[in-house]
Design brief:
single chain; alpha+beta; 2 domains; five-stranded mixed beta sheet; two-stranded antiparallel ribbon; 9 strands
Length: 210
């Protein structure tokens, strides 16, 4: 692994109350550790252990000797240090529940690329977004008023409501709790320790890219 990709390894950040608040690259995590604004949380044999940066550097040789495969290593001039998987902020208590943004991609994802009138699945290039209550009748852009529609159904509906066009939605449009297109995907073994801290429904960003 190159030095650039290593320093960009993703690290889970917890607040002081052990709730997940964000994902940061390793360089940011080490900055917080150097400022003593955070500590490293390590899960070892089912137990949670905490380390300051200097303590973590002290155990680096033992980690390298006995469990090198469990860590991603950052090579420094005088030693190699394991990239922490989780850090905990020492003074931050807030937890912000992210909002799922109203975007074309998220609407397609919510409706699973299905036309909400005929129920058929289409590619993104063959789908449109339809205002259930047309804009000419006062309908706006909202989760409850936008649905996926194929071009044929959208043309048939025109500037009418579904009832006026004698058409029926296959499901009532809703605001999702999380972004289906960006569900948490944890692949490498080193990220398994994240699972106990994450509630998938609260995340609207992709945490680990495939």
């Amino acid at each position: 692994m190159s030095a650039i990709s290593t320093i960009d390894e993703k690290v889970l950040v917890l607040n002081r109350g052990y709730s997940a608040v964000r994902i940061v690259p390793a360089r940011h995590a080490f900055t917080l550790l150097c400022r003593e604004a955070a500590e490293i949380l390590s899960i070892e044999n089912g137990n949670y252990l905490t380390y300051g940066l200097h303590d973590w550097m002290d155990v680096a040789k033992l980690q390298k000797e006995f469990e090198p495969e469990k860590h991603t290593w950052l090579r420094l001039p005088s030693l190699e240090i394991a990239i922490p998987k989780i850090i905990r902020l020492l003074t931050y208590d807030k937890f912000v529940k992210p909002e799922v943004r109203l975007t074309r991609r998220n609407l397609f994802s919510r409706d699973k690329n299905k036309c909400q009138y005929c129920g058929k699945r289409f590619s993104a290039t063959d789908l449109t977004l339809d205002h259930v209550v047309p804009r000419v009748q006062g309908g706006g852009n909202s989760w409850s008023n936008l649905v996926c529609a194929c071009m044929k159904c959208n043309t048939k509906k025109g500037g009418r409501t579904p009832r006026q066009a004698s058409m029926q939605l296959i499901q009532k449009p809703f605001k999702p709790l999380h972004c289906e297109a960006r569900k948490l995907r944890i692949g490498p073994i080193q990220y398994k320790s994240w699972k106990s801290f994450l509630q998938n429904a609260y995340w609207s960003i992709e945490l680990v890219e495939d």
